[in-house]
Amino acid sequence: xxxxxxxxxxxxxxxxxDPSVLAAMQPYFGQQFYNPSATYAKATDVKKxxxxxxxxxxxWLGARPSEIIFTAGGxxxxxxxxxxxxxxxxxxxxVVSGIEHESVLAPAHRYECREAEVTADGRINxxxxxxxxxxxxxLIGIMYANNEVGTIQPIRQISQLIEAMRNERQxxxxxxxxxxxxxxCQAGNYLDLHVARxxxxxxxxxxxxxxxxxxxGALYLKGGxxxxxxxxxxxxxxxxxxxxxxxxxxxxxxxxLQLVQSDRHEEAQRLQKLQSTFFELIEQQxxxxxxxxxMKQRLPNNVHLTIPGHDNERxxxxxxxxxxxxxxxxxxxxxxxxxxxxxxxxxISNKDAQASLRLTLGRQTTLTDVEQAVMTxxxxx
Length: 381
Known about the structure:
By secondary structure, the chain is of the alpha/beta class. It has 13 helices and 12 strands.
C-alpha cells in the first residue's frame, strides 16, 4: 500500500471527519436507525440522542437548546436566516458586507440589499455600515471570520452599534425589528461562539468546517424571533425545517463542536506559530508576494497571498502535481472564472486577484508541511 505523502492546505474548504466524531455518529447509521418522531422506546432513545446533541451545541453558544435549529450545512442555515426574516418584511431591506459568502450574498440580493464596504485589510467599515442602515433595514448580515482572507470582524462592536440604533427606533416609534446575523462557519475552530457576548440574534454553524460531517449545520435563533420556513411538512425543528431529522449528522456536529471548542486556545496557538513561520518563509523565499487580509485580526490558520505576475490556476496545478493541495479562494465558487468578489471588495485588481492563492492549515498540518509547501511554491515562482 502506497504511503500518502501529499500535503493538504485547504482546511477552509473541508476538514476530515475526526475519528471520535465518526465513532459518535456510527450507531445512528445502523442499530439506532429509528425515526426520532416515532413513539416506541427504541425511537425515543434516538430522540434523546438528538436532544443531547442540541443541548451540547447550545452549551458552547451559551444558548437554550430550543434556540438551536439543525440544518443540512451552513448554506441552508444562512438561507433560512435571510429568507426567514425577509419574506416577512418584503418592503424592508437587508445590509450585508461586501465579503460575505455566496450563501449570504445570493439570498440577500433577492431583496433590496445594500453592501457595506470593508477596509483594505478586510475589516468592516463601521461608518459606512452605519450609513447603509436606514429606517427600513430589518436584517444585517456580517460574517464572523472570512473564508478567503481570514479576517475576523468586530461582531461585538457591530452588535453594540445596532443596539443603539434599536433604541433610537423605539424613541421614534419605529416598530420594525433590527436583527444581526453572523455566518460563523469559519470561526468555530478558533473563536468564542458565546452568542450573548457577541450580541447576535442569529448565528450559523457548519460541521464540514470543524471536523464534522459535511451537510451538517445549525442556526442559532434567539428566542422570540420568528422566521418563515424554507421547508414545510411535518413540523420538525420548531416548524422551521420539516423532514425526518438526520440524527447521525446532528450527533456528529455536536461531537465536532465539542472537539474544537474544548481545545481551541491550544490549537490556535499551535497554528499561529505555523502561520508566522509560513509568513517568514514566504518573505524570505518569495519576496514579491503580498499577504492579503489583516495581520492582527486574522484566523490563525489562514495564509492568503498575491504573487504578482503569476497565474493562480497554473500555480495550483503545479502544486497539485507536486502533492500540495491549495486553493485560489472559496471552493463554492472555484468553477467561476470571475475574480473573487472578496478580493475586489478589498480593492485588489482583477489581475492581482487572479494571481492570488489561499493556503489554510489544520489539525494535521506540521512544520515540515509548511516548509515543504513554501519551498515548492518558491521553485514554481
